[in-house]
C-alpha cells in the first residue's frame, strides 16, 4: 500500500517535468530562430521578416521571408512547421522562390517543377541545426516562332546545411545541367558550392568562406568546341573592427579547344581597407530607408547622408592587390604572370560624390585618385608589340599614376588608354 501511494505523485511529477521540458524546448527553438534571423538582417544585404507566426508547446509554424535590401529582383518564402520534442525539434517546410517585379513563382509558374521541400532537426541540448533540401529534375522546352528549338534539362540537386548559432555551413551539389539552343549545346557540372559563415552577435564581425567547383564544362557549337574541367572560384570575406576585406582566387584546371590548351592557371585578388565603421553606417541608413519605403534613385541623389556614407567607405585608401596571377593560353601564345597593387588616394574626399558618377567629370576625379603598379614577367613577344615595346622585352612594369597607365616608363598607346 505504501508503494501504491507514491505512484500518483510520481506520475504527476514526471508529467510536470515533461511539460516544463517541452515548454523550455519550444522557447529555446523560438529564441534561437529569432536570434539567427536578427543577425542575418544585421549583416545588411537582406531584408528578413516573418509572417503567420504561431508559437506553441507541441508545435509552431510560420513563414520566413528573405529578399534583397534594395530592389525587388527576387523574394524567397520559407513556410515551416516545427514539432517540438524535449531533446529534438523536427522542422519541415517548402521553398517558394519568387522572381521579377511581377513576383512570379519560379517553381510552378516559370519552371515545371514542384516547390522543393526541406527538413531539419534542431538539437535542444547542443543548439545544433542540421537539415537538407532536394531539388527535383525538370525539363523546359520551347520553340519560338522562326527560331531554333531551345531546351533546358536539369538533373536535380541537393542542399545540406548545419551548424550552431554563430557558425553555419552550407553545401550545394548540382547534377549536370544542359542548355540546348539549335545546334549549340552547353553542359555544366557536376558542381559543388561549399560555404561557411561565422559571426559574432549582431554580425558586427564575420567571416564568410565560399568555394565553387565546376568539375566539367563543355560547349558544342558549329564554330567552336570547348571543354573545361576543375574550374574553382574561392572567396573569403572578413569584417572586423577596422575594415572589410575580400579575398578571391580563381583556378582554371584546363580549358581546351579540341586538342589544344586554351587556358589554365590561377589568379588571386585581395581587396582591403574598406572602412568598417562607414560600412555599418551605410547599412543602417539603407535599412532605415528601406523600412520607410523611400529608397529610389531620385531620393538617393538628393540625400547627402547616403552620399557621405558612401564616400566614407574610401577614407582608409582602399587597396586592390593582385597577389598572384599566373594564366597561360598556349593556343593563343599568351601568358600573364606577375603581381601588383592598386591604391585609392583618400585625400580631400569632400571633392567626391559617388551619387554623381554619371557625370564624366566626376568619374575623372575618381580615376585620378588611382595609383599602383604591376610587374609582368615572361611577357609574350606579341603582347610587347601590341603595347609598343621592343620585341625582346621579357618583363614589363605597368605603372598607374593618377589614373594614367605607363608601360616601362612610357605612356600607354592611345589605342588602349581609353
Can you describe this structure in just a few lines?
This protein has 418 residues and is of the alpha+beta class.
How would you characterize this protein structure?
By secondary structure, the chain is of the alpha+beta class. It has helices at 2-43, 276-292, 297-301, 304-312, 360-367, 381-386; strands at 46-54, 59-68, 74-84, 88-94, 96-99, 104-105, 117-123, 128-135, 138-142, 150-154, 157-164, 167-174, 177-181, 184-188, 191-199, 206-220, 225-239, 243-257, 260-275, 319-329, 334-344, 370-377, 395-401, 404-407, 410-411. The chain has six helices and 25 strands. It has a 25-stranded antiparallel β-sheet that branches. Helix 2 packs antiparallel against helix 4 (304-312). The longest helix is centred in the N-terminal third of the chain and has 42 residues, at 2-43. The radius of gyration is 28 Å and the shape is globular. The mean pLDDT is 82.
Question: Which residue ranges are poorly predicted, with pLDDT under 50 across at least 5 consecutive positions?
Answer: none
Our measurement of the CA-to-CA distance between the termini, rounded to an integer number of angstroms, reads: 100 Å
- The total count of strands amounts to 25
What is the helical fraction, as a range of percent?
10-25%
Shape: globular
Rg, Cα atoms, Å:
28 Å
Class by SSE composition: alpha+beta
**Can you give the mean pLDDT?**
82
The fraction of residues assigned to DSSP E strands is: over 45%
Please describe the biggest sheet, giving its number of strands, its sense, and whether it closes into a barrel. Answer: 25 strands, antiparallel
**Count of helical segments?**
6
